[in-house]
Amino acid sequence: MGAKLAHPEKNCIAFMGNASFGMVGMDFETAVRENIPILVVLKNDNRLGGYQHHHPYASEHYSLNKQTGEYAKVAAALGGYAEKVTEPNEVMPALQRAKKAIQSGQAALLEIIAKEELDVPMYQ
């Protein structure tokens, strides 16, 4: 939002996973309320990346590494443009629709459903 306020002529996009949205997603309401037309692209794989490696017991027994939610519905309920994308060939058309929404002054969120990627690089 700060980038958009500093450069209103530019398209400002936040790309995040569902865990990130769980931590800062309610800030989307600020964008809606203050008419800050940003685009949030949310990759939702229903997982908290890396948790199964760092917390295997809690992940296996208590589903620590899982996160569910209908984030597009949350964004729509907050008053923004929102769309859930479930098919790869729908990503580009959804981006075009979201671009129209932000060009009209509306904050937008695209929730893109992805599968969990188990083979991720880990730092030591």
How many extended strands?
4
What are the segments in which pLDDT stays under 50 over at least 5 consecutive residues?
none
Can you count the helices? 7
The biggest beta sheet reads: 4 strands, parallel
The CATH superfamily title: Thiamin diphosphate (ThDP)-binding fold, Pyr/PP domains
CATH architecture descriptor text = 3-Layer(aba) Sandwich
Q: Give the C-alpha Rg.
A: 16 Å
Which strands sit side by side, in order, in the main sheet? Answer: 1-2-4-3
Q: Assign a percent range to the helix content.
A: 40-55%
Mean pLDDT: 88
| Separation of the first and last Cα atoms | 33 Å
Strand content: 15-25%
Overview of this structure, please?
This protein has 124 residues and is an alpha/beta fold. The protein has a single domain, classed as 3-Layer(aba) Sandwich (Rossmann fold). The chain has helices spanning 2-6, 18-24, 27-33, 51-54, 56-62, 71-77, 91-103; strands at 13-17, 39-44, 81-85, 108-113. The protein has a four-stranded parallel β-sheet with strand order 1-2-4-3, with helices on both faces. Strand 3, helix 7 (91-103) and strand 4 form a beta-alpha-beta unit. The longest helix is centred in the C-terminal third of the chain and has 13 residues, at 91-103. The N and C termini lie far apart (33 Å).
Features:
124 residues, Rossmann fold, four-stranded parallel beta sheet, 7 helices
In brief, what are we looking at here?
Helix content is 40%, strand content 18%.
Sequence-ordered SSE layout with sheet pairings:
Blueprint: H1 2-6, E1 13-17, H2 18-24, H3 27-33, E2 39-44, H4 51-54, H5 56-62, H6 71-77, E3 81-85, H7 91-103, E4 108-113
Parallel strand pairs: 1-2, 2-4, 3-4
